[in-house]
Amino acid sequence: MRCRSCEYRLWALPTRQCPECGTAFLPSEFDFAPGSVQFCCPHCKQAYYGTDAKGHLKPKSFECVSCHKHIHMDEMVLLPAEGLEEEQTEAFKLPWLDRERIGTLRGLYRTIGLALIHPMRLIRAVPVNSLCGEAWAFAVLVNMLVMVTGAGLFVFFIAGTAAFSSGGGPGAFGACMGTCCSLAMPFVCLLVAMLLWGLVAHGLLRLTGETAGGLRRTLHAIYYSAGANVVSGIPCIGPYFGWIWWIVSAVLMVKEGQRVGGGRATLAVVTGPGLALMIVVGIYTTLILSVMGAGGLIATEIATSETEVVAHAVLEYSDDHGGSRPTHAIELVDEGHLAVGNFVATGTATTPNTVRVGGVTLRQLDSLSPDRRDKAVEAIVESLPEDVVAHRLGDFVFVYHGISHPPPAPRLWLVLMSTEPIDDSEEQHDQVIAGCADGSVFVIPGDEFTASLRQQNDLRRKHGLPPIPDPSIVTHDRPAVSVQSPPR
Hints:
Layout: E1 37-40, E2 47-49, E3 61-63, E4 70-72, E5 77-80, H1 99-102, H2 104-117, H3 119-125, H4 132-165, H5 170-208, H6 215-224, H7 238-258, H8 262-320, H9 331-334, E6 356-357, E7 360-361, H10 362-367, H11 370-383, E8 388-393, E9 396-398, E10 413-417, E11 431-436, E12 441-445, H12 449-462, E13 480-481
Antiparallel strand pairs: 1-2, 1-5, 3-4, 6-7, 8-9, 8-13, 9-10, 10-11, 11-12
Helix pairs in contact: 2-3, 3-7, 4-5, 4-6, 5-6, 5-8, 6-7, 7-8
């Protein structure tokens, strides 16, 4: 116990003034470790020991058991308990607030230890009138270390690799700046989230009853409990559960600091992170659905473009052959209008190695010498039955048979992009893309294809063309023929 003005020792003084500087004092103005100080009666020297949280007598005013005079704690003569040094009488101080004496690093890791293991003792050591700035600075430093040791090391490794591969210079500078920004934005968001968390928690406490302290006390609990978040700094696994330790520590500290029940403390503390988690999940889900939707649109655009290439190749062949269509689409490869890869749509299980026609795969056909390839193409063409209506090559079904050039109706289908079924069941297409006689291409959703096929066959009948079947039943081994004439 020392004078607050000159640090003079105030033990064993019956007066209430510092002998050195004259500053007045009262024993109740000091905090002590419980049971570490003798409060001696000023009349008979009977000793009493302070047992409350501040090491004070309880009660402060009473009748002396020896001289029976009424005495008050502030009238007594104080001495360290027998066998104790002055330093052992000091009340427990929060290490972070005592860092000027013990050092910042030691104050930091000792306070982190309290947040992890003894959160209730930690909040009891925080003076009620302590500035929130001290607690906020502690939380900022802890979370900065968490980000650097957790995600930061990985991000800096990636940035360092990029900088090294760029050979230094502007590329290295850009990699470093990108790394800093990637860590700074989440860190700033976390600081804002901590403040909002404290405001929400205190608001719920006030809505559900009385509290021992104000907003400052709730913020003390939220900010100092951040010490438990160091677990999140464990690379790879920490971020998945470290924040839970922080929440549990915050619940215990709010309960103790505001003198409320466990249920109220849990409701107040958990609500903020719960809402934040739901918002994050909602945003993440929305982004995933958006990406999936965009991916579907991109896939459809690619398939449409691929169908357009095939349809235009058929039209170019007709232009080159006086209006005749290819007997079999394989002739488009033989004459250089298409490559074997053009018959395989992006995103399907079909590959040039799996498409087998005329006893060879498309990949094998592509690797044959010109003479052997010509013979193979001739055999494939000869394998088609008479009055063929539709035949398949890869992911495309060709239905141009019998349609003159120029066509009698521009909306007659020439080719359909429809993946070959994996078994004998029908109508396995999610969507079909049609390439028309006028060069246009359009997408037909799967649930609308039956009606579109009916309309197309009505159009074909008007021009004396046989109906075409659902493309999903047309395989490489089973081309479709006109029902008016049996296959030869």
